[in-house]
Amino acid sequence: MLTKRIIPCLDIKDGRTVKGVNFVDLRDAGDPVELAAAYAEEGADELVFLDISATEENRKTLARLVRRVAERIDIPFTVGGGISSVADVDVLLHNGADKVCVNSAAVRDPELIDRLVRKFGSQCVVVALDARRIEGQWKIHLVGGKEPTQVELFGWAQEAARRGAGELLFTSMEHDGTKGGFANKALKRLSGLVNIPVIASGGAGTREHFADAFLKGEADAALAASVFHFNEIPIPELKSYLKDRGIPVRIRK
Known about the structure:
Elements: E1 5-13, E2 16-21, E3 24-30, H1 32-42, E4 47-51, H2 63-70, E5 77-80, H3 86-94, E6 99-102, H4 104-108, H5 111-120, E7 125-134, E8 137-142, E9 147-152, H6 153-162, E10 167-172, H7 184-193, E11 198-201, H8 207-215, E12 221-224, H9 226-229, H10 235-244
Parallel strand pairs: 1-4, 1-12, 4-5, 5-6, 6-7, 7-10, 10-11, 11-12
Antiparallel strand pairs: 1-2, 2-3, 7-8, 8-9
């Protein structure tokens, strides 16, 4: 089993870290720069920064804030929100991002993935899959979960992988913020359909949930927000638990 990654997620709105339930009812979770620095120090493997209102507000990601975060961390840094062009990615990479995460713009224009991969390489391109079950089928949602589509999760995941995406970030909207566990059946199906890493998101509430994402969902990484922001599960403690369960993780010396 390859080393599994633990990834805190900073959902950003109005320059602050926020967290909600099922993509709504947001509450303040702190200063993103200070949180990012703390996570890097605690042994997080990567950090994801999502400007969750950028697409809805028709603006670009907060590049200045991205730079401030990048200056404080020494781990891989993925940034998403409002990205719709090669030029957008150029700005973020120049401000310290290592990877970018695209969702709405890629669904509306799938060739965006091709263009980004040609310019920056697969390792730089993460495709986010925000999905909810509608009448028994997983459907992709856009604009921070506010816009449902008829795009089917698994078919779109395969297309994104074919176009060269380096990773997929799957968030189950119905699990998001509930702390009831990840969508492990869907995760396992996704992992079996593509040959690129799948990041689990939505539902982390206990250490066991992370283990289940890796053992049952066969995810390559697990992303969470509130359990880290509010210090419910310290990252060093989580990694020690996973190691004891036989799950390979990187322990910071």
